[in-house]
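Sequence in, structure out. Go.
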Amino acid sequence: MEIRDYDSLVQAVSHYLHRDDLNDAIAGYIQLAQARLNRDLKLRGERGDRGVVLAQGERRLRLPLDFNGFLSLWGGSAVAPFDRGGLRWRDVAGSWSQPLAVPAPLPAPPGRRLHYVDDRDLAVRDRPGRPRRFSILGTWLLFECPAEEDQTYRLHYLRAFALSEASPTNYLLEHHPDAYLYATLLEAPVRSFDDDRLVVYQDRYDRAIESVTAHEADALGDDVMSLDFGRRDDFSMMEG
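Output:
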């Protein structure tokens, strides 16, 4: 049975449980499974990019509902931080047997990166201004001062797995459906004489997570990672 979207995942779970009357319950199992997956996995394919506006006089913004990890926050509405830093292969011409022809340096994107500060160390002030520092507390972005005028930002973040009928597929389901399947089966109740089935599902889930993690690491290649700290407002441990 091919698992390609939310409905086919429900069908697969129903098949494994030998029940065809659990569709409503399986929706709950998938919700619990996604909570587990959001704790166990952070995937590059689940990066989000969203424009947000801090209104004049305000000093906080609610994070997106699918927020699962912070990457960076940039001022301006047209920002491309992933294109900064070292040259990518798409930026050069040549081959392994010929010298690479390096083009002119990439233009710096508009806007500026705001500095993240731990909420315990964020120095706040009441005078309105143009915030340069912020923190994250609960479901909020907190800024050091109220905005003197509407401020537009670009938030880059890791999205939570939030599969549903309204959002029927995502990166994890498309590339690693076994992780979704076994995570969901682990949340389904079983009868006492089916305890061995849970052991099997747990083992297959653990192996799926290990495989996904290894696959993500292999996608980075075998080059040695180096850190270029550059200017203070350019560096991100997650993005370079």
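Check: The radius of gyration is 22 Å. Confidence is low (pLDDT under 50) at residues 79-100, 222-231, 236-240.
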